[in-house]
Specification:
Blueprint: H1 11-14, H2 17-36, E1 41-48, H3 61-70, E2 93-100, E3 106-113, H4 122-137, E4 141-146, H5 155-167, E5 178-188, E6 191-197, E7 200-201, E8 209-215, E9 218-223, H6 224-234
Parallel strand pairs: 3-4
Antiparallel strand pairs: 1-2, 2-3, 4-5, 5-6, 5-7, 8-9
Helix pairs in contact: 2-6, 4-5
């Protein structure tokens, strides 16, 4: 089916975009777990809009009481006042993380679904680009899906500009506002590199299958089109 515009009327009025993206992340994780991931791997959706929620200290009181009945009591120390405070940006997170459980849980790949707030101002764009760079510098393979039609920023190109600071001049490669890209950090002889699979998109296009590397040359293909159609059906969005 063609890609729909989830961020503009009439669909944005009939359906809230973040409800769809939340459901899409869950659908992708479910399909990966059921059919595609090898043994010892699992996928988990991770969705967070806005600032993180603080944990109420009172939540721990029953647990502390239980511990004291069984022996050692849990001690909750008062929070010390901060010695300094600086501004920070906490961008929306809509992602699926893939974890390898062999030798202890370790994130080996991630699929990021871009939200409008990831692109709406320089601070949030820098935060998203920093997250991309952090994943890749840790050797974590990454896919980024940007279907946001109401913001013109190119996060892929902004990430390339970020890389220029250490790698020198790199040509912009995003040619359309929408795309579904995959990135793989590799070692080529004595130098590191990031391989890219770039898929420029427009509303009305079909979504591609995305390569996602789990370890070394172990790779799966994420069927974006299939998961997109399934999510549209689950959300009762008309499928052409």
């Amino acid at each position: 089916m063609p890609i729909l515009d989830h961020f503009s009327p009439p669909l944005s009025v009939e359906r809230v975009w973040h409800t769809f993206h939340h459901a899409w992340a869950a659908t992708i994780a479910r399909l990966l777990n059921r059919r595609l991931l090898p043994e010892h791997y699992f996928a988990a959706p991770n969705v967070q809009f806005g600032p993180r929620v603080e944990i109420d200290v009172g939540t721990f009181e029953p647990a502390a009481a239980s511990a004291s009945q069984g022996g050692a009591a849990a001690v909750i120390l008062p929070t010390l006042p901060a010695t300094a405070v600086i501004p920070a940006t906490f961008p929306d997170t809509i992602e699926v993380v893939i974890v390898n459980q062999e030798g202890g849980p370790q994130v080996v790949a991630a699929i990021e679904l871009v939200s409008p707030s990831n692109k709406d101002r320089p601070a949030t764009r820098r935060a998203f680009v920093a997250k991309m760079s952090s994943y890749l510098q840790q050797g974590i393979a990454l896919s980024v899906i940007d279907l946001v039609t109401t913001r013109s920023a190119h996060l892929h190109n902004e990430w390339l500009h970020w890389m220029q600071a250490t790698m020198g001049w790199i040509e912009d490669t995003a040619r359309t506002p929408l795309y579904a890209n995959s990135y793989r950090p590799v070692q080529l002889g004595e130098r590191g590199a990031i391989e890219m699979w770039l898929n420029p998109l427009r509303v009305g296009d079909r979504l591609p299958n995305l390569p996602l590397f789990l370890r070394g040359d172990l790779c799966i293909e994420v069927p974006l089109e299939e998961t997109y159609i399934e999510t549209c059906g689950d959300q009762r969005i008309a499928v052409a």
